[in-house]
Every structure is written in C-alpha cells, then in structure tokens.
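Whiteboard transcription, Tuesday session. T.W. wrote the structure tokens on the left side:
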C-alpha cells in the first residue's frame, strides 16, 4: 500500500472523528436552545423534544419583562468582564515575566510567595472583611473586579510560557541596543506572548462572566447587580412560583401561565451564549500569536 494513500485515509478518518466529536459538543447547547423555545404545554405533555410541536418566545418574553434591569445588569457584567480581564492579564503577565527572568534576584522568593497563597487560601471571611471593612467596597462595582484581579494559576501559566517561548537571545540583544525593561516587555515580550495572554484572558473572562457569588456577598443594590446574579434571583423566583402553583395557593391561577420549565433553559442560553460567541475571536489571536516574532538564525 502506498504510504501517501494510507496517510490520506488516516487523515480522513481523524477528520470525520473530529467532526462527529465537535457536533456532539454543540448538540447539548442546541438542544437547550430548542427547549427554551418550546411551548410550556408541550413540555408538560410530551417532555423534552428535539423538535417541538409548537414554538414560542414566551420564556424570553418573561425574562424581558424585567425591562431595563436586565439590560443594565448585562452592561454591568460586560464592564466587569472587560475591565477585570484586562487588569488580571496585565498583573499576571508582569508578575510572571519578572519571576521568569534568570537575572532577577528575588525570583524564587516571589514564586514561593505566589505558590503559598495558592496552597493556603485565607478563606471567605477574611476576604469579606478586607473588601467591606478595609477597602469599603460594599455595593461598589469594584468589589466584583478586585477580588479576582490577580490569578496565581495565570501567573504559573505565563511563567512557563515566558521561560519556554521567549528566547533569552532576543532580550539580551535588546539590552545591548539600549532598550529598558519596560520597552523590552511592551515591544518584544508582549507580541511573542500573545497566545499565552489570550489563553489566560479567556480563562479570566469566563470566571468574571460566570461569577455571581461575589455579587451575592458584596452587593445589595440593583445598580451593580451583574446578569448572572440577576438570573439566579429570577431562577429562585421561578422556583418559588412553582412551589406556589403545586400547593394550589390563591395566586396559583395567575401563575399558571408562567413558563417555569422553558425559562430555566432560557436562563442558560442568556448566561452562556454571549461568552460562547467570543471563542472564535480568541481562536484568531491564538493562531496569529503563534506566528509573531522569532529568533533569526
């Protein structure tokens, strides 16, 4: 058998396998979207169906009844995600670059310091006291940003990336040419580190976008409520409405038209779809960053 034809057949098999695997990953999310658009009566009678008999936007209309509160919470989440990701990527990258340099005298100390706080977390109570009593950030949007503004795991990723992907020859050549550390970092290291920065930025953005626990701890005002915490409150309200309908209370008749099942899936779609749409943009930076810079032999 020709080795080239064997290789082509193997590539075809792997491509088909990867295609099936990709579709299997997309199928659950597509199914959630379908169920969120299913009429509540169909879910009650027929259960969850891949192709429902009746389509409706009732669950999303119910979510939109909150009006400006939903849009305001969405804006708060976007602001927290963007600003928090930028701050985290900047702090983690600069810290990691410093401890990755062999000529930095305190590299071992600061590496141990980072690992120490990763292994021995202070806990929720000290963090709550620092944010509310020392920093006075109660009901402040910065309470949603600063607790996650520095990630030790991101530092370790970037430290390994700088050690393996940023050649010492380039840095030494720049120093010989008279460039300072800040100029070397901004003009040489950052372009070479785009894949690593894009990776930790994606992890950080996912963390900020999905975070509702900090909002529950530090905020009571609707002005700084993110979309995730708002959706959690809506979900809790739906659960209470369901219990009232099952108990047959006086308000059960008025609550029977609420799409209690479909709205659960609509909440998942609203919470997941925006951040899922950012993946292609990060993928573009992954590919671009792999081709930036290099050492000329």
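and on the right, the sequence the group agreed on:
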């Amino acid at each position: 058998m020709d080795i080239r034809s064997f290789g082509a057949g193997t590539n075809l098999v792997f491509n088909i396998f990867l295609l099936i695997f990709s579709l299997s990953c997309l199928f659950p999310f597509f199914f959630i979207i379908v169920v969120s658009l299913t009429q509540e009566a169909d879910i009650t009678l027929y259960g969850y169906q891949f192709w429902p008999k009746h389509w409706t936007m009732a669950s999303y209309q119910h979510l939109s009844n909150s009006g400006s509160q939903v849009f305001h919470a969405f804006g708060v989440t976007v602001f927290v995600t963007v600003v928090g990701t930028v701050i985290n990527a900047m702090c983690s990258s600069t810290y990691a670059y410093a401890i990755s340099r062999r000529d930095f005298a305190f590299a071992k100390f600061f590496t141990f310091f980072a690992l120490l706080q990763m292994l021995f977390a202070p806990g929720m109570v000290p963090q709550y006291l620092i944010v509310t009593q020392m920093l006075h950030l109660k009901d402040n949007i910065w309470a949603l940003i600063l607790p996650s503004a520095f990630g030790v795991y991101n530092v370790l990723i970037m430290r390994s990336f700088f050690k393996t992907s940023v050649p010492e020859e380039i840095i030494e050549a720049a120093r010989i040419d008279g460039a300072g550390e800040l100029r070397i970092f901004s003009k040489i290291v950052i372009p070479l580190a785009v894949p690593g920065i894009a990776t930790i930025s994606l992890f950080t953005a996912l963390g900020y976008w999905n975070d509702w626990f900090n909002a529950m701890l530090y905020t009571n005002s609707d002005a700084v409520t993110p979309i995730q915490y708002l959706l959690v409150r809506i979900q809790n309200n739906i659960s209470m409405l369901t219990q009232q309908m099952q108990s047959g209370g006086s308000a059960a008749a008025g609550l029977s038209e609420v799409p209690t099942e479909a709205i659960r899936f609509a909440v998942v779609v609203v919470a997941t779809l925006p951040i899922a749409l950012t993946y292609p943009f990060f993928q573009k930076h992954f590919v671009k960053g792999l081709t930036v810079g290099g050492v000329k032999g």
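Someone added at the bottom: The first helix runs from residue 3 to 36.
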